[in-house]
Design goal:
The radius of gyration is 17 Å and the shape is globular. It contains seven helices and seven strands, in the order βαβαβαβαβαβααβ. The two termini are about 20 Å apart. It is of the alpha/beta class. Belongs to the short-chain dehydrogenases/reductases (SDR) family. InterPro entries: NAD(P)-bd_dom_sf, Sc_DH/Rdtase_CS, SDR_fam. This is SDR family oxidoreductase.
């Protein structure tokens, strides 16, 4: 099955929105895409951390601080990407309460908050940007997790939210043949989130390695589907 043909932006510069870009994978991917000549719109809840990230990202970048679960903030993101998007990266997510409890002790209200960030907000952003993505032959990249498919103890809340995001992506790919829809398990990375989960983040590879893989995915534009970063070429994508 061939990939979906790319339609370049009218102004010659492609635009990507990357949520959760103040640190970790989001920041590394934004920095790489900016080097590749993209204009990146980035968001995060911590305004100071996001400003610091934008200085590191360099290139053409627009920062919009806020929470993706907030409709007003999502409207701000739409305004920031006034010319439309070529790529939407739903990277922002939450583990839920930490230390992560077993399902028997997981407050349902906390699970609802986890789903609001990890499932409902990505879908809302897809709905907001889908008309333009259709018009431009754009792409959606949803960052998921192996916790969506594995039975890791205490990961039930986070894992079930990522499983829901994967199935939303799967259905979206069937419903939107003119838009590339990828959902990617990035694998373990040396990030604050992995450390907050109580895992050995120091022994995990840096997020820049996975960001290079995702840049290659975006550049090569394979068919819609689920991908594991570990199975994809690791060398950085050339600017295109």
């Amino acid at each position: 099955m061939p990939g979906i043909a790319r339609i370049p932006s009218v102004d010659g510069m492609r635009t990507a929105l990357i949520t959760g870009a103040s640190r970790g994978l989001g920041r590394a991917l934004a920095r790489g895409l900016a080097r590749d000549g993209w204009h990146v719109v980035v968001d995060a809840r911590d305004a100071d951390a996001l400003s610091a990230a934008v200085r590191e990202i360099g290139g053409s970048a627009t920062a919009v601080a806020g929470d993706v679960t907030d409709p007003t903030h999502r409207a701000d993101l739409v305004r920031a990407a006034d010319g439309g998007l070529d790529l939407l990266v739903n990277n922002a997510s939450t583990l839920g309460p930490t230390p992560m409890p077993r399902l028997a002790e997981l407050p349902v209200a906390d699970l609802a908050d986890t789903f609001a960030t990890n499932v409902l907000a990505p879908l809302a952003l897809v709905q907001d940007f889908l008309p333009g993505l259709r018009e431009r032959g754009g792409a959606i990249l949803n960052v998921t997790s192996d916790a969506a498919t594995e039975n890791y103890e205490t990961w039930g809340g986070y894992g079930s939210s990522k499983a829901a995001l994967e199935q939303l992506s799967n259905i979206l790919a069937a419903e939107e043949p003119g838009v590339a829809v990828w959902w990617v398990d990035p694998g373990e990375m040396n990030t604050a989130m992995l450390r907050a989960a109580g895992e050995d983040a120091d022994s995990a590879p840096p997020p820049e390695r996975t960001a290079a893989v995702l840049r290659r995915l975006v550049a090569d534009r394979p068919p819609s589907g689920r991908y594991r970063a570990a199975d994809l070429p690791a060398e950085p994508a050339a600017a295109r």
